[in-house]
Every structure is written in C-alpha cells, then in structure tokens.
Amino acid sequence: KSLYMIDRWGRGYFDVSPDGNLTVAPLQERGSKIAIRDVVDAAIEQGLRTPLLIRFQDLLHHRVRALNEAFNRAIAESKFRGTYRGVFPIKVNQLREVVEEILDAGKTYHYGVEVGSKPEVFAGLSVHTDPESLIVCNGYKDDNFIRTALIGRKLGKKVILIAEKLSEVRMITRVAKEMNVEPMIGLRVRLLTEGAGKWKTSGGENAKFGLSTAEILAAIRIMDEAGMSSSFKLLHFHIGSQVPDILIIKRAVREATRYYAKLRKMGQRIEYIDVGGGLAIDYDGSRSTFHSSMNYSVEEYARDIVHNIADICDEERVPHPNIVSESGRAIVAHHSVLVVQAFGSIEKTPMSPIDIQTEEHKLIQNLLYIKDNISGPNLGESWHDLLQIKEEAQKMFELGLLNLDVKARVEILFWEIAENMQKIASSLEPEEVPDDLGELRKQLADQYICNFSVFQSLLDHWALGALFPIVPIHRLNERPAADSTLVDITCDSDGKVSKFIDLNDVKDTLPLHPISGDQPYYVGIFLTGAYQDIMGDIHNLFGRVNEVHVFLDEDEESGYYIEETIAGNKIHEVLALTQYDNRDLVGKVKAQVDGAIKQDLLKPTEGMRLLADYERGLKDQTYLSLTSAP
Ligand code: PLP
C-alpha cells in the first residue's frame, strides 16, 4: 500500500484488502468496500472487456456533499450572511449520467450547473430542474447561445449570462429586449492575480477571458443605457484549474471582493461572487505546491473563501454576497478508474540467454572481465568501461567490422552486467552510488504493453505531463519484481506513461509484477474522472472505451451492482467518424473479392467467407481482444 502511496492520494476512498485487491469505498468509512477486480470480472461476464472505465456513482454523491457541507460549515462558523450556491462545470465531465447524478446529490443544496459552450447550454437547460439553483453561462457567445439561455429565464430559472467581453454585454441586452425578458448578467473580471501550475494563464493581465476595470465600467453603462441596470447580478473570476497553492486562491478572492465592494458602493446591487474553479486534487499525495498536488484541504478552501470575502465586505461596509464556486475536478476526479490489461513486456535483457559462441572476441573478453569483477567500490569505473565497450562495438559494427553474432553477445552481456550493477547499487547507501548510475535504473526499466490509448484516456499526461496514480488492482500482497514504464497500443512513440507519482519528486518507473502466462494482469489508472474521458481524441481510431456504472447495494453479497454498461466504440463507428461509410467499405471489398474470384486467386466459397469475416470484423471493438496474457 505504501509503495503506491494509496493512503496519501486515496483520501479514504481507496485501500488494499488482505488478499491483495485494491478496494474502493465510495462513501469512505460509511459504506462497503468494493474490490475493483470483482467489478472487472463481473463486466467481463456481461460481455465487456478491458480497457474498462468504472464509474463509482456513490462517490460523486460523496464529493458533492463534502464540498457543499464544507462551505455551509464555513458560512456558519464565520456568521457569514450570504449562502453558498455551487455549480458543476459540465465541461469537466459532460456524460449525462454523471451530470444527473451530481444534480441529484446536490438537490438539497440547490447545486446547479455551469456551461461554457453552445452545446453545453442546450444540455444544461434540459438537465437543470431546480429553480433555486443557478445555471452559470461562461464562454464566448452568439445570439443562439444567448437566446437559449434566455429561454431558461422565461421558464423562471436563475440563468446567469457571464460576459467575457464588452460586445457580449451589448448582445445580451439586445437579445433580451427582443425576447422581452429580464436577463441576469455576470461580468468576468480580469484579475491581476495569476494562478499557478499548468493552467495559470487563465488569470492575470494576459488572460484569454475577462474584462479590465475600464471595461467593467463601460459594461455598466451599456446595461444602464439598455434600461437593464438591475441585471448586473454576479461578479466572476477564474484563475485556472488545479491551483496547488492556497495563498494564490486567497489573494485572488481578496482582489475580486475588492471589486465587488467598490461596485456595491457605486450602487450596483450585485448578489453573487463567483470564485470559478481551481480547487485542486492531490494526484501525487505529496500535499505540496507541486503542480500535481495541493497544500490545502476542501475545508480550508471553503473557510478561506468565506473568511476573506467576509473580511473585505465588513471592512468596506457592504452586504455579504452569495458565494458561487465552479469546482469540477474536485467533484469528479475520484469517481472513475480506468482499468487496462498489461499483456506483454518489452525487456532489455532476453528471458533466456541465447547460446552464442563468441567468447574469444576481444570485446567479449573485456565484458566478461567487467562482469567477473564488479563490486561496490568500483561501480562507477565499471559503468564507464561498460559504456565505452558498447560504443566501441557500435562503431565497429557501423564500419562493417563486427558480425551479428558478436554484436548480439555484446548487447546481451551489456544488459546483464548493467542489471548486476543495478542490484549492487540498490544495496548501497544512496550517497555511495555514483551520480552517473542514476540513469541506469531508467534505462533498465521494462516497458509493459497495455491495451489502451494514452491519447483517448490520459490526454493530460501526454499533453501537459499531468500525473495520475497508477496501481495494479490485484496481487498487491506480492512483491513487484520489475521497474517498468507503460506503453499503449497506438502506433505513436508518445503513447506511453513514463512519469509516475512520487512523494518528493516524479518517478521514471513503476514497480509492477511479472505477467504470468495464463492470468490477466490489470493495472488501474486512478483519479481520471475529470477532463480525461471527455478530452480524449481518436488517434489511431481507438475511440471510446467500455464503461460500467457501479452503485452500492448493501443487500447484495458483493456490496454493489452494475447499473449500466456502455459499450466502447466499434470499428465501423470510428470509421464512420472519418467519413468511411459501412456499406461502401463492404461494397468496395466485395468488388475486390469478386475480382480475385474472376482471376482464380480465390474459390467463390472462400471469397464469400472472407467477405463475411470482414463484415463481421467491422462490428468488433477497436481495442485488442485479449482473453489472457499470451
Ligand atoms: N470554471 C471555468 C470558467 C473554467 O474555465 C474551469 C476550468 O478550467 C472550471 C470552472 C473548472 O475548474 P476546476 O476543474 O479546476 O474546478
């Protein structure tokens, strides 16, 4: 458990059972623990295969409650006079079942939704039913966007259109007039406080969105001139997602509240301060200001927002506003786990030594000498000699002076000796290991081939170097034998995971167990519920993975049931996305089969059988069909 730091990033949701299975407790200590391996087996019995995305829906409930209650407690503690009205930004995970589950969990708290594009406003309007909760509309807008949002106003909903730029204020007032409805308008202020981490450019002077101080004043004039001076209801800011440092959040809240206070003093009856997203996830468990972590808790986040808003409002003698936050990552990241099957490994050293009789060659003699004489004290010197021989062998080969059998023997001996060195190095105190040998561990790492696509399922790792906890979901009572990296099945050398979480830094390898012949080996990629499945692309046409939605059920012996299964993309579906029509594909292959029959390359019966195979194959799933390790 400590090897994979499960207690640190797992936050009471994830644990290891005595029989070595990784378990999830969607309600933390209050509910049952589900062995993830059992869910995988049950899904396979229902006809699904890995890669498999498992959503623990009760965990969503738990997160929504945790956030709302943290704010409500903070409000009660500081005798704050406003309320908390959170909204879930559906761009973080738009899946209908996820959004509906979140709204269901948030009913008692009047928890609403945030939308940021035209398709999202259409979705938001339909799933939102509570007139007390908000629909916050961010993102660039056109007439259709605004009109759709204002349909919500006509239906009595609290839909707030946030202007990202001045021209949008004009558009909103114009369309509202045309529709004869009073809009609720928010202004996004461009704070000088910059975020931190990977998404820090969402804030600061050069941010893509937001109004400067002069533009806010101009926006107020536009609303006044349109006779809609009471429509300005909300002041919004967002300094970026995954803000690891609470000090930055406090600074931004104080800066924005100062705007609120000054605007209230100018007579603007703003009702809400919206602090945007940014509440981070401790992906690496380090509880630090590293970009994959956070140095605060949800409770501290809520307390600091409430306290700092109250502090400035009291100082400026203006009413306390209602507080809106748009936390996405913090609500959904924990609830889904991607399970992939590692089905083979690319090893540096061959499993069984190949018997090559080349011992008399000078290079081999030198290597054998190093092999017989390495020890702790001469580790550095031996490593340099080893590298020099490898280089010499390569040069000789390029000049045509080395036959393949000697080259093969050099390679085998090189990795064999390197592995021995690594063993000796790991038995020494860290300060006794020469610096040069740091690279050796990385070079010796095996690559486990996993049936998934980094581009589809772990896009932030590929694009931004974001880290996710990765842990085998079973065999955790066995000591892992290999330091490995993971490679996916796309034809792209970037399709790999070679950076892993670590308490103090980032690790280049992950300890994994040997893959045994007939048993599948499953690895879980955790905290993937935010952004990953929705941002994924169809590089190599792999597309969506299989998915199951799991609910707790105390009456079931297993403690859970699978409520829904969603099959991953079939081959013909992803081909259709790139304009290959299914019938056209079959028609063209049939013409080629007919041609081959005419030329006597195929017998008619065989030709028709092959055509049927092709047609059937189109309905197969895109990922590899692995029943067990080969
Ligand atoms: N609100 C806005 C305007 C955003 O751009 C984002 C994402 O960057 C969010 C909310 C969600 O942020 P997070 O997932 O950090 O809570």
From TrEMBL:
- Under Enzyme Commission nomenclature, its number is 4.1.1.19
Where do the catalytic residues lie?
491
Q: So what family is this one in? A: Belongs to the Orn/Lys/Arg decarboxylase class-II family. SpeA subfamily.
Q: Which residues form the Arginine decarboxylase helical bundle domain?
A: 358-437
What is the purpose of this protein?
Answer: Catalyzes the biosynthesis of agmatine from arginine.
Q: Write the protein's name.
A: Biosynthetic arginine decarboxylase
- Give the originating organism: Sorangium cellulosum (strain So ce56)
**What are the UniProt keywords, alphabetically?**
Decarboxylase, Lyase, Magnesium, Metal-binding, Polyamine biosynthesis, Pyridoxal phosphate, Spermidine biosynthesis
Question: Is the Metal-binding keyword given for this protein?
Answer: yes
Q: Which residues form the Arginine decarboxylase C-terminal helical domain?
A: 571-624
N6-(pyridoxal phosphate)lysine-modified residues are: 91
Does this entry carry the keyword Magnesium?
A: yes
| Pathway info | Amine and polyamine biosynthesis; agmatine biosynthesis; agmatine from L-arginine: step 1/1
The gene from which this protein is expressed is speA
**At the top level of its lineage, which domain of life is listed?**
Bacteria
Q: Which residues bind substrate?
A: 273-283
Report the enzyme's class at the first EC level.
lyase
Q: Which NCBIfam families match?
A: PRK05354.1 (NF003763), speA (TIGR01273)
- Any Pfam family: Arg_decarb_HB
Report the PANTHER family cross-referenced here.
ARGININE DECARBOXYLASE, BIOSYNTHETIC ARGININE DECARBOXYLASE
Catalytic activity, as annotated: L-arginine + H(+) = agmatine + CO2
What the entry lists under InterPro entries is as follows: Ala_racemase/Decarboxylase_C (IPR009006), Arg_decarb_HB (IPR040634), Arg_decarbox_C (IPR041128), Arg_decrbxlase (IPR002985), De-COase2_N (IPR022644), De-COase2_pyr-phos_BS (IPR022653), Orn/DAP/Arg_de-COase (IPR000183), PLP-binding_barrel (IPR029066)
Citing just one GO molecular function, the answer is: arginine decarboxylase activity
Cofactor(s) of this protein: pyridoxal 5'-phosphate; Mg(2+)
